[in-house]
Specification:
Largest interface: A-B, 25 and 32 residues
CATH topology of chain A: MetI-like fold
Shape of chain B: globular
Number of strands of chain B: 10
Structural class of chain B: alpha/beta
Number of domains of chain A: 1
Strand content of chain B: 25-35%
Strand order of the largest sheet of chain B: 6-7-8-3-9-10
Structural class of chain A: mainly alpha
CATH superfamily of chain A: MetI-like
Distance between the termini of chain B: 31 Å
Radius of gyration of chain A: 22 Å
Largest sheet of chain B: 6 strands, mixed
CATH architecture of chain A: Orthogonal Bundle
CATH architecture of one domain in chain B: 3-Layer(aba) Sandwich
Oligomer: heterodimer
Order of helices and strands of chain B: EEEHEEEHHHEHEHEEH
CATH superfamily of one domain in chain B: P-loop containing nucleotide triphosphate hydrolases
CATH topology of one domain in chain B: Rossmann fold
Helix content of chain A: over 70%
Number of helices of chain A: 10
CATH class of chain A: Mainly Alpha
Distance between the termini of chain A: 24 Å
Radius of gyration of chain B: 18 Å
Shape of chain A: globular
Helix content of chain B: 25-40%
């Protein structure tokens, strides 16, 4: 409870100050919409089902893209870490494509996938591959030789060596990669939805911008921020559980 | 039975262009059930010898045979206890044992009970669901030993297993190891840099010196167990060993 107060008093204070500034005309509402009017719009959109509808559409793109990207990233990272020839073959391509900002792929994504959900998923997948790939690769490469020696000495076969030793040892890095990927996936989801899709959080935000609905713009920005915040919080919780062995506490 | 015949091993540093003679013409035999200690200062090649028997080190001159067969790989018939414990930190105490038994192909229907019994015997009953990180150094090494007992390895190769422990913990683990050896009749190949530890534990001590690593002394320790490290005969052995080491 004490921590919650320490964490939240300042954001809440800031909101109150903002509200007060707008109602006192220190700030112009058309540039800085008051939090209260934003909350009214947000509440209206929740009741009408609009936010839920948009969220659902966005979540689908988010999860499908993240799933494709992170799965490919893990698989590529593992293969490159284990096989030197694959590593040599792919490392230049990976390093160059990784350096290209995913947003610059918008043109080709429309060209290849048309307009709609597919290019958005493509962008998310493309952006999330690399954090997963790099972190998985590093994680596997950094596995202490001692663990492998011990496991081989105990007679572990390939399958057990891979699942119970190498992958477990690399899990902290893989989860770090996933955390970066989730952050990127939210950004790319909104970017992807700026390209003509019929619904979704980014799309509604775009339209609010076109009609100069500043309250709704802000409401949707906050909603996106909250989803990003909550998804990160959830991942941290899951990571803490999976990596509880690092803290040395008893189960 | 472990046999070394004319083992030579050189470590080359290709970048610096230097090479170090880690082992020079090392030959000896360890009988089944014998408690053998290899003792010497750092750099004398004692750990290299262990790595050769364990099958971690395969590039050397000479012949190393275990039960008559040349060593070509590592395996659960030669369980290793490492100085750094080498427990899997992401597995609980019990899971570490389970993993070892499954790896060694020793997992059967009542293995879960066997593993609990062994952990109980090693004083780890209250820590079944703890992770290695929450255990003390002594507890961790007990678990590492329990792991080798669980896979029922006839040989136990121990690489300075108590080197990182405090004196009190070390001496209690040494006592337990002697008891364990009496009970299980395992062949123990024990690496140490401490003359006291070697004399306290082993049937026979092989003393080595560095640059190049070679055997300089072999001593049969003929003191009844449990041995008293403060007794005159114990000191006699110790004097002999230190004399050889200091003469270099």
């Amino acid at each position: 409870m004490k921590v919650a107060i320490q964490k939240w008093w300042f954001p809440i204070f800031l909101l109150c100050f903002w509200e007060f500034s707008v109602s006192n005309k220190w700030l112009d509402h058309s540039f800085f919409p008051a939090p209260s009017s934003m909350i009214i719009v947000m509440w209206g959109d929740i009741l009408s089902g609009k936010i839920i509808h948009d969220s659902w559409a966005s979540f689908q793109r988010f999860f499908v893209g993240l799933f494709i990207g992170s799965t490919l990233g893990i698989l590529l990272g593992l293969t490159m870490a284990v096989s030197k020839s694959v590593d040599f073959m792919l490392s230049a391509i990976v390093q160059i494509i990784r350096a290209i900002p995913p947003i610059t792929w918008i043109g080709f994504s429309i060209l290849w996938f048309g307009i709609g959900t597919k290019p958005a998923i493509f962008l998310i997948s493309l952006g999330t591959i690399f954090p997963m790939l790099i972190n998985t690769y590093d994680g596997v490469r950094q596995v202490d030789e001692l663990y492998i020696r011990a496991a081989m000495n105990l007679g572990a076969k390939r399958r057990m060596l891979f699942w119970n030793v190498i992958l477990s040892a690399a899990l902290p890095n893989i989860l770090t990669g996933l955390r970066v990927s989730i952050g990127l996936a939210w950004i790319l989801m909104v970017v992807g939805e700026l390209i003509a899709v019929p619904n979704g959080l980014g799309q509604t935000l775009m339209r609010a911008q076109d009609y100069n609905q500043v309250d709704r713009m802000l409401a949707y920005m906050i909603v996106i921020g909250l989803y990003g915040f909550l998804s990160d919080l959830l991942l941290v919780q899951i990571s803490n559980y999976l990596l509880r062995w690092q803290r040395g506490l008893e189960r | 039975m472990i046999e070394f015949h004319g083992i030579f091993k050189t470590f080359k540093n290709t970048q610096a262009g230097t090479s170090i003679a880690a082992l020079e013409n090392v030959s000896f035999i360890q009988k089944e059930g014998e408690f053998l200690a290899i003792m010497g200062p750092s750099g004398c090649g004692k750990s290299t010898l262990l790595n050769i028997v364990a099958g971690f080190e395969l590039k050397y001159e000479g012949v190393c045979r275990v039960n008559g067969e040349p060593v070509t790989n590592t395996g659960p018939d030669r369980g290793v206890v490492f100085q750094e414990y080498a427990l899997f930190p992401w597995m609980t105490v019990e899971e570490n044992i389970t993993f070892a038994m499954k790896s060694a192909g020793k997992w059967t229907r009542n293995s879960s009970k066997i593993s609990k019994d062994i952990l109980g015997r090693m004083g780890l009953s209250n820590f079944l669901n703890s992770f290695p990180k929450s255990l003390s150094g002594g507890m961790r090494q007990r678990l590492a030993i329990a792991r080798i007992i669980a896979i029922d390895s006839p040989m136990m190769l121990m690489d300075e297993p108590f080197g990182a422990l405090d004196a009190l913990t070390r001496s209690s683990l040494q006592k337990e190891l002697v008891t364990l050896w009496h009970e299980t009749k395992k062949t123990i190949f024990f690496i140490t840099h401490s003359a006291d530890e070697a004399i306290y534990l082993a049937d026979r001590v092989i003393v080595m010196t560095p640059r190049p690593g070679k055997i300089v002394l072999e001593l049969k320790i003929e003191i009844e167990r449990p041995r008293d490290p403060t007794s005159p005969e114990f000191n006699e052995y110790k004097k002999n060993i230190l004399k050889v080491l200091n003469s270099d």
